[in-house]
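[job 4471] stage=fold_predict status=RUNNING
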Amino acid sequence: MKAGRLHRVPLTDRAVAILKKVHALSSESDLAFPGQVTGRPLSSMAMEMMLRRMKITDVTVHGFRSSFRDWAGNVSHFPREIAEAALAHEIGDKSEQAYLRSDALDKRRALMEAWAAWCDSPKVSDVLQISKRL
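[job 4471] inference complete, writing structure tokens
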């Protein structure tokens, strides 16, 4: 983490299933996403390079995080603090942060399950792609 602090991530059942399949493909590494160099993880540029190779130019890697945050704020009913914690953002001022001792893992797990369900829902296929910016 760039903030230099531990950030636990609750995984959905679907995410765990994907990780098990990935591990079966490359069981010679303990890393969830091994890179091309043995014992090293994927590069921080791996997703951006994938988008470039797919010639997808109107999407950014950070946009995936932004899409999650927009959904959490506009569609879900989870508190703002839980969405911010899911993104490993600092919440409040120094005084408030001094009293935040929990990482709300169970609440974040429920948030991630709701996000996974929304991503798999038929509603997502109704999203229209706009090719030109105004």
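[job 4471] summary: The mean pLDDT is 84.
[job 4471] exit 0
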